[in-house]
Structures are given as C-alpha cells and as structure tokens.
Amino acid sequence: MMFKGTDNSPFIYGSDDKDIIDGSNFNDWIKAGGGDDLIRAHDGHDRIEAGRGHDIVRAGDGSDTIFGDFDDDLLFSDTTYAPRVIPHSGESDDRLDGGPGRDTLVAGDGADLLHGGEDGDAFVFRFHDPMVGTTHCYTTVMDFEPKQDRFVLDAGDFGKGDLFGANFVNHSKGFPGEFVDTFYNGEAANAHGEHVVVITDRGFTSSSAAATAIHGEARGDIIVYHDEKTLGQEGKTHGATLAYVDSANHAHAFAHVDNLHDMSDLTSLTAENFGFI
Predict the structure, then answer these.
(1) Is the dihedral of CA 46, 112, 154, 148 positive or negative?
(2) Which SUPFAM superfamilies does the UniProt entry name for this protein (predicted)?
C-alpha cells in the first residue's frame, strides 16, 4: 500500500502490510505500523516510527528523529539520491534509534546522534568530512559495543567527486564489505602505518596531535583515540574519537563514541570492528 503526506495534516499512518510511505515537505509524524516498509520522509523536521518489520527509512532534509523499533532496519539520516548539499547550521542534525535487532544506521551531514539499541549494529559513515556551513560537525555514536557492533566506512565513490563528495579510501581485507586489512591497537609509538590505528596509552585534545604521535600515517588512514576535551569544547565529553588522516601529521574527526568513556575501553577494539564498503 502507498501512503502520501498532505499539506493539511502532519500525521501519516501506515498499515501492518508492506507499505511505501512518502512524507510531505512539512514537519511530519509518520507511524508506519507493522510490515516491511519503505519510508521516505522528504523535507521538514520529521518524526518517524518505523514499527515492527524489516524497514528502510530515508529521512531526507531537515532535523529528523527515527525510531526503528523491532527487527533489522536500515536507517538513513539523509537522502541518498540527491546531490550532496551542505545544509545550514542545525538543519540536518538527526537522531536515529535502531531499537532491538541488527540494524544499519547511516550517518549524514550535521551533528547526528546514533543509538543502535540491542543486538549487533552497523554504524555507516558516508563522508569523512561532515560539515554544516564552514563548521565541522560530526556524528555521535551513543552505544557502541565492541563485541557485537562495527563501524562501516563507505569508499564506493572515492576520488570521483569534489570537496563536497569526499569519502573514505577502501582498505578492506580483500573485498568491499570485509574488515580492514591492517590494524594496530596499542601504544602510539609502536604504530607504523597501519590503516586503522587505535591508541591506548594516552589521550589527545585534537586529531592532529594524535596523528603526530604515530608513525607512517598516510591519507585515508583512520585513527581512534581517547578524547581529552571537556564539555564546552565542541560540546563533547571524554570518550573515543574517530579521525581521518588527510596529510602527514594532520587529521580531522568525523565521529565520537560517547559510551567508551575510559582509555581502557579502547583495548577491546579489533580489526573486525572496522569494515569498508
């Protein structure tokens, strides 16, 4: 069944069948019901409740809140079809909550909040340069569990776009979809050019400081480090930061993990926590 939002009502209800639901360009509240649904919210600041079933949700422009509910869902914070456009400040800050099930949560531009919920989830990053205007804003993952979750870095169109299409270098182990080919977890001084480096002996106040502390880094490498910034500096607290190396001794953050509070939490990260597509 197909449901389409109107200009007259912000409420859109689905059924318990397999629905295709299109929101309006206003601020919608979409409640999909059961079934394996496709939900396209379009513009506006929307609230989407996907309900039970294996659902696909594309939030679109605006600051949206998505609840995946039960089962395995695929949640996109932004549209995947339109050309990439830098939003105005605060207009693309989305919240995705997967709920129970093995969910895939796809971050976009803006200061997104991702909560995977129960079971093993994939947190997908399409761009290493999430921006709002001229200010770098990055995604916060609220509940990463190293034993069952993973970060997935999209390298599908690397080098084909301009500054605003930047994404990741494919360092998968053999084929896209597999985990990273070279990995290091330990003291900064003993890292030597691995494609994902997790630093566990000290924290840093900036991504470039972390890049300077290791050896052999190259463009496209990923550094994970304990963030020693306090609340008020970019609005983040102690936790883990993921950074992208773009030149020697220089990197910039693209994600923060709130629940890895202590440096010792990073020791449990392995190569299988980092995949490429």
Answers:
(1) negative
(2) beta-Roll
Domain count, the chain: 2
- Are 194 and 184 in contact by the 8 Å Cβ rule? The answer is yes
Do residues 69 and 150 both lie within one domain?
yes
Phi-psi sector, 69: left (phi>0), alpha (psi -120 to 50), beta:
left
Q: Look at residues 138, 154, 170 and tell me which one is the last residue of a structural domain.
A: 154
pLDDT score at 232? 46
Phi, psi of 164 (to 5 degrees): -90, 10
pLDDT band at 233 (very low <50, low <70, confident <90, very high): very low
Residue 259 has pLDDT above 90, yes or no: yes
- More confident position, 222 or 129: 222
With respect to residue 161, please indicate whether it lies within any of the assigned structural domains: no
Q: What is the pTM of this model?
A: 0.86
Residue 93 burial by Cβ neighbours in a 10 Å radius (0-12, 13-18, 19+):
buried
Does residue 160 contact residue 167 with C-beta atoms inside 8 Å? no
Identify whether residues 226 and 106 lie together within a single domain: no
Confidence at 180, pLDDT banded by 50, 70, 90: very high
Question: Residue 232: exposed, middle, or buried by beta-carbon count in 10 A (0-12, 13-18, 19+)?
Answer: exposed
Whole-number mean pLDDT of the chain? Answer: 84
More confident residue, 5 or 206: 206
Closest CA to 79 of 108, 50, 51: 108
Domain check: are 135 and 9 in the same one?
yes
250 Cβ contact list (under 8 Å, min separation 6) = 208, 211
Eight-class DSSP state of 84: P
CA atoms within 13 A on the CB side of 138: 22
What are the phi and psi torsion angles at 29 (to 5°)?
-120, 110
